């Protein structure tokens, strides 16, 4: 429970001050300047205590957000709330800075009144807040047009919430009720020239787009592999770590029966993120061999092999092979796709489209160097090869959705759509 909320400039001077309880007699900006700005950097902590008062702060660009409490409170809650405030402000005036905070101080106070009540966090969903607090009207005549990106300013709304502040009852109605779920995994991997995985990481997201009428409850069931991974039960490998849910998910129900149940926000949002560091085999492996042809000509053989299942097709695979910056006249002959030279980054890019699984392709490339570098072609094998790809209908971790159900009291028919996409992150293959 916070007593004060401050936005301070880079020198610690207050730009915004909102008092919720009126029980602070200290001078918080002076304390902040002494304990943070004037202190040695290695001694500064985001949470500190001063004469029985708890201070929490974060830095957002060139300003500081600070909350002060006199009674026992949860610092993590206050830090999370300040980050949410920053995201909401960015939704209103794009960039949070000293200038934009001063120019939009009226809307900042309106938002703080709705987002926090008597020091307790309330509503932090920008979509809902924008329906009640907007920026046009009188303010549109006072501020430059580029500072504004919302519509009209009604009276301040107090206590509009309920159990679902991210979705207001009686507000949404669609002729066609649909919900879209994208399971997107980004694969970062480092492989040896022989194709052995040296390190790998998968970062996954469940992205949703909701177009549903009323107040529906969605239930999402995951495959057993993913479920066991998130529980971390003894005797089984923990497949997933750093699992984070959107605030709409009922965590108590997930803990009891392992079903993700929630009343979703309207529109686009991230339902869940996760990470796994379990070693996986390379989805695409590339071998590259250099040969010297005379004193200045180099011949290179590139072999690309896909190891994902045969009934899956990659939308694209781009293979980036580094070559010397003074290379000239690259010529290529590829069994599939095309190879072109990007002189600005000194790489050859082999572009493949609609590449099936379990396939192997090769490319022969010749280029000239203006001077003799070395009689050993291995001297050219230095920087790793980078691979970029996108593979639909596949998850590298094995994550799958067993079902997605929509339940609403009017019993309308909803169409759920689930799609899987695996993309490359930092995907590299060593050449030596």
Could you explain the architecture of this structure?
- The chain is α+β, with helices and mostly antiparallel strands.
- The protein is built from eight helices and 23 strands.
- Strands 11-13-9-8-23-21-16-19-18 form a nine-stranded mixed sheet, with no helix packed on it.
- The radius of gyration is 28 Å and the shape is globular.
- The model is unreliable at 137-143, 145-161 and 228-238 (pLDDT under 50).
Total number of beta strands: 23
Poorly predicted residue ranges: 137-143, 145-161, 228-238
How is the largest sheet built, in terms of strand order? 11-13-9-8-23-21-16-19-18
Give the % helix: 10-25%
CATH topology of the largest domain: Beta-Lactamase
- What proportion strand? 35-45%
Number of domains: 3
Family: Belongs to the adaptor complexes medium subunit family.
Organism: Trypanosoma rangeli
Protein name: Adaptor medium chain 1
Subcellular location: Endomembrane system
What is this entry, summarized?
By secondary structure, this protein is of the alpha+beta class.
List the helices and strands and how they pair.
Blueprint: E1 4-8, E2 14-19, H1 28-37, E3 47-50, E4 53-60, E5 63-69, H2 75-93, H3 98-103, H4 105-115, E6 116-117, E7 120-121, H5 126-132, H6 138-142, E8 178-191, E9 197-211, E10 217-222, H7 224-231, E11 241-245, H8 251-257, E12 260-262, E13 267-276, E14 284-293, E15 297-306, E16 313-322, E17 328-334, E18 338-342, E19 347-356, E20 360-368, E21 385-392, E22 401-407, E23 415-429
Parallel strand pairs: 8-23
Antiparallel strand pairs: 1-2, 1-5, 3-4, 4-5, 6-7, 8-9, 9-13, 10-12, 10-22, 11-13, 14-15, 15-20, 16-19, 16-21, 17-20, 18-19, 21-23
């Amino acid at each position: 429970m916070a007593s004060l909320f401050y936005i301070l400039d880079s020198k610690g001077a207050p730009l915004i001050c909102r008092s919720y309880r009126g029980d602070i007699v200290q001078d918080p900006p002076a304390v902040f300047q002494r304990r943070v700005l004037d202190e040695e950097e290695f001694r500064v902590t985001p949470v500190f205590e001063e004469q029985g008062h708890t201070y929490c702060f974060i830095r957002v660009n060139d300003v500081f957000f600070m909350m002060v409490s006199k009674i026992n409170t949860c610092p993590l809650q206050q830090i999370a709330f300040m980050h949410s405030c920053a995201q909401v402000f960015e939704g209103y005036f794009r960039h949070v800075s000293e200038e934009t905070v001063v120019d939009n101080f009226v809307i900042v106070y309106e938002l703080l009144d709705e987002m926090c009540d008597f020091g307790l966090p309330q509503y932090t969903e920008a979509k809902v807040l924008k329906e009640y607090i907007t920026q046009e009207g009188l303010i549109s005549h006072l501020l430059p047009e580029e500072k504004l990106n919302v519509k009209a300013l009604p009276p301040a709304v107090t206590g509009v919430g309920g159990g679902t502040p991210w979705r207001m009852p009686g507000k949404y109605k669609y002729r066609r009720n649909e919900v879209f779920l994208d399971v997107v995994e980004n694969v970062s991997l480092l492989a040896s020239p022989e194709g052995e995985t040296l390190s790998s990481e998968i970062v996954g997201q469940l992205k949703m787009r909701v177009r549903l009428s009323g107040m529906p409850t969605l239930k999402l069931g995951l495959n057993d592999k993913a479920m066991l991974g998130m529980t971390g039960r003894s005797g089984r490998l923990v497949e997933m770590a750093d699992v984070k849910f959107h605030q709409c998910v009922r965590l108590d129900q997930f803990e009891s029966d392992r079903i993700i149940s929630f009343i979703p926000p309207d529109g686009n949002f991230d339902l869940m993120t996760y990470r796994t560091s379990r070693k996986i085999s390379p989805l695409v492996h590339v071998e590259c061999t250099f040969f010297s042809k005379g004193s200045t000509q180099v011949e290179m053989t590139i072999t690309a092999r896909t190891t994902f299942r045969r009934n899956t097709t990659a939308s694209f695979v781009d293979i980036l092979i580094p070559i010397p910056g003074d290379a000239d006249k690259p010529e290529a002959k590829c069994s599939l796709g095309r190879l072109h030279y990007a002189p600005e980054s000194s790489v050859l890019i082999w572009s493949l489209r609609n590449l099936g699984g379990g396939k192997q392709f090769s490319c022969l490339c010749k280029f000239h160097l203006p001077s003799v570098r070395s009689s050993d072609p291995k001297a050219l094998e230095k920087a790793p090869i980078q691979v970029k790809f996108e593979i639909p209908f596949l998850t590298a971790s094995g994550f799958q959705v067993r079902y997605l159900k929509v339940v609403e009291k009017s019993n309308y028919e909803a169409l759920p759509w689930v799609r899987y996409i695996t993309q490359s992150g930092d995907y590299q293959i060593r050449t030596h």
